[in-house]
Amino acid sequence: MKRTGSGREAGAPPPGASAADSPPTPRPPADPERLLVELRILYPDPRCELEYSTPFELLVATILSAQCTDVRVNQVTADLFRKCRTPEAFLALSQEELEQEIHSTGFFRNKAKNILGACRRILEAYGGQVPDSMEELLTLPGVARKTANVVLGNIFGKAEGIAVDTHVQRLSRLLGLTSETDPVRIERELMALFPREEWTNLSHRLILHGRRVCAARRPDCPRCALNSLCPSARDLPVGAGSEQ
Ligand code: SF4
């Protein structure tokens, strides 16, 4: 049976004392090995939820996913990729036309500018193919480590780092894996905690958990399977543990 906030050993008062006598001892950070075990059970077959059929499409979809949900990006790209599937086809659009196509993903001016810039660079420097190294991907406009990690991990099977999006950022902090706020520093700390072969799926799994259970505004701690190892689990009302 999973331990819940109501059954927390760490906060139990010593014999003869009441709970009010001493503040509960904070839980330690989540143990990376136990966390991996739990996440594997919860999300046995994780995958990127963006829809794409080529490396170039994943690159574009990932650029569009900044500050936007994958569901919305998939709605937009369903139409967009019917019309444009290659860097050449994108460059046949004007900046304004592309802005209109991607308007609902937010930050559409910057995204359109970056996508067109990336298309030009892919054609001029990489023979029309999405490059397969971190160093080269980072030369594309609009591509930082998160996007590069998504492309490298999902397309080329290369784990050069861990894609740190807003969910990974939040979950890593809640689970006590890092106290950093900068995504690059968070990535570095996670890379030191988890084996390389887990990096790509760790990102997928934390993103899925952030979407399904540990939402930014209302983390569902009583029903969270990570509750027993999460230092941020909220105390549960008496009896709530029986739901687990
Ligand atoms: S839902 Fe609660 S217990 Fe689960 S990971 Fe988020 S903060 Fe921790």
Structure description:
This protein is mostly helical. The chain has a domain of 101 residues: Hypothetical protein, domain 2 (Endonuclease III, domain 1). 48% of the residues lie in helices and 0% in strands. The protein contains 11 helices and no strands. Helix 1 packs across helix 11 and helix 5 packs across helix 6. The longest helix is centred in the middle third of the chain and has 19 residues. It is elongated and about 65 Å long. Bound molecules: iron/sulfur cluster. Iron/sulfur cluster (SF4) binds next to loops.
In this entry the ligands are: iron/sulfur cluster
Q: Using DSSP, what is the number of strands?
A: 0
Largest sheet: none
**Helicity range:** 40-55%
Going by CATH, what is the homologous superfamily of the domain at 55-155?
Hypothetical protein, domain 2
Give the uncertain stretches in residue-range form: 1-16, 237-244
Radius of gyration: 21 Å
What is the helix/strand order?
HHHHHHHHHHH
Q: Termini distance? A: 8 Å
- What fold name goes in the CATH topology slot of the domain at 55-155? Endonuclease III, domain 1
Strand content is: under 5%
The CATH class of the domain at 55-155 is: Mainly Alpha
| Number of alpha- plus pi-helical segments | 11
**Class by alpha and beta content:** mainly alpha
Summed over residues and divided by their number, the pLDDT gives a mean of: 90
**Which outline best applies?**
elongated
